[in-house]
Amino acid sequence: MPLFKNLSAYDDRSARLAGIGLMVLSIFMFSFGDAMGKFLVGTYSVGQLLFLRACAALLLLSPLIWKQRHQFLHLERPRLQLVRVVLSTLEVAAFFLATVYLPLADVITYYLAGPIFVTAMSAIFLGEKVGWRRWTAILIGFCGVLIALRPSAQTVSLPALIALGGSLSFATLMLITRSLRKTPDIVMASSQFLGTFSLGAVLSVFNWVPPTPGSLAIFAAAGLVSVTALFCVNRSLKLAPASVVVPYQYSMIVWAVIFGFVVFGDVPSIATLVGAAIIIGAGFYIYLRERDLGRESDEVNPPA
Length: 304
Description:
Blueprint: H1 2-10, H2 12-40, H3 46-67, H4 78-101, H5 104-111, H6 114-125, H7 132-149, H8 158-178, H9 185-204, H10 213-239, H11 242-245, H12 252-264, H13 270-292
Helix pairs in contact: 1-2, 2-10, 2-12, 3-9, 3-10, 4-8, 4-9, 5-8, 5-12, 5-13, 6-7, 6-8, 6-13, 7-13
């Protein structure tokens, strides 16, 4: 990416615009990859999706893994690294399992609550100081989750709880990533795909469906999109401050609604849209408070 390096050194405004563009592109690609995954699990098992998608991603990453192989030899806090991989694998599996039964926009809405869960858990488990303003935003965000979940004896479903559990796993994953900032990017990315590869290899044995050439192409595309989107996020954060580009991640709900409607004919409910709006508002406020208090982090850890 020498062009973006030159932009960063030569023109700060151009670098910021390029960073914003790459972040928007990455969110579109992540959403596109999610839509492809939802399409595939209509025919193939979640395990087979995880396995073949990870195969494509690891194949693409293999030159970088080989080039930077020395960085895998001395990892900080190996046990915590293992916990991180397990959580990453579980949250990706939960995401795609939930999409089998729920509209894409619904699942994305639960995952958008991740920053709210992170802030709450930081105060409870890490002892970080959280003032009344952010606690208020956390409570409002939880109200948004409840509105989207529409809790009642008739409406709370197992897939919704799976999606919410995946969101909690993702939030815990982000907390752990905060304490593993010295870990190289290639180790972070490849270990996540290795986790989904391992789980997918085990699960797909029990329900393997021979993929057609067309499906194989979509599996490969899903892996390519995931890796490319991950690199776009990382480059975006090198070109522009996190406070400039991170808020654009909330555009994921827009793409989820569009892909859900165009590809699957899903029409999001009013409750989902209202809940998503409340969650986004609360999460954005929490992010601004983190920035104002000098606790902004450039670490972004999207799902693998």
